[in-house]
Design goal:
alpha/beta; single chain; 262 residues; two-stranded antiparallel sheet; seven-stranded mixed beta sheet; 37% helix
Length: 262
């Protein structure tokens, strides 16, 4: 993409640092994102935060239907006019409004809302998601137990999807330039790799124990009134959650379910 074409793609809008806005300006990166998405001609695509429309332009060429959610009124109007007839532009906060149905999700996520956005994506049925996030956030998405990056995000992603970091993207590909590298992550849904007796309890155990990851699981559960009076049948209480595989956290949650249901 030439400097002139980049200027034409950018509306007059100053990205807001408070919202983690760093807009993609390199069409070559967007081309690769679309290739990773492998969009079929009849598929519906959702993009959140189209920004200057560099990625949107390429998605519009591939998707049967393209939805985009944009919070900023100026950018919403810019993209509404630019892609008239090729884009359903939804103006609003993607963390609060209802999403349309989609087959493929492709977005450059604002850094400041990456965590709630990933969990919201995972709550939907989709075939593939291609997201660009901070590299350190991407590392947390795919982290294994026993590492510093292992977190509730790692467990949540693992339980629902195959996740792969396919590319690291330098700051020069954005405006303004972020201070860190970004990464493209491909998410492919799969059946849960292990069963749990109560999904809500499993998720609660994950959240609560990672809030106190430096404490023993016994101490973390006691802090949230999740420790049963009879601890004998509950495993891993003397471990820290960061040492447990997701499957072992599932075993812990199932033991708590049995101990607490009576």
């Amino acid at each position: 993409m030439t400097r002139e074409s980049r200027r034409q793609a950018e509306p007059i809008f100053k990205p807001r640092k408070s919202r983690g806005q760093n807009f993609l300006i390199d069409g070559r990166v967007a081309d690769r994102q679309v290739a990773y998405a492998d969009i079929a001609a009849d598929e519906v695509v959702l993009e959140v935060g189209p920004g200057y429309g560099v990625l949107t332009e390429r998605l519009a060429e591939k998707a049967s239907t393209l939805h985009a959610i944009e919070l900023e009124p100026e950018l919403a109007e810019h993209n509404r006019q630019r892609f008239a007839g090729r884009l359903n532009l939804i103006e609003g906060d993607a963390l609060k409004i209802e999403w349309p149905r989609f087959d493929v999700f492709v977005s450059n996520l604002p850094y400041s809302i990456s965590t709630p956005m990933i969990f919201r994506i995972l709550d939907h049925d989709f075939r593939r998601a291609v997201v660009m996030v901070q590299k350190e956030f991407a590392d947390r998405m795919v982290a294994e137990h026993g590492t510093l990056d292992y977190s509730r995000l790692s467990v949540g992603v693992y339980y629902r999807c195959y996740a792969e970091i396919v590319e690291t993207v330098p700051p020069s590909r954005f405006r303004p330039r972020p201070k860190v590298d970004s990464a493209i992550v491909v998410l492919t849904p799969r059946p849960p790799p292990f069963p749990v007796k109560d999904l809500a309890l499993f998720q609660d155990v994950v959240n609560r124990t990672f809030q106190h990851r430096r404490k023993t699981i016994r101490s973390a559960l006691r802090s949230h009134d999740l420790l049963p009076a009879d601890e004998n049948d509950v495993p891993y209480l003397d471990e820290r959650v960061e040492a447990l595989r997701p499957e072992e956290i599932g075993e812990l949650a199932d033991a708590l379910y049995e101990a607490l249901k009576d």
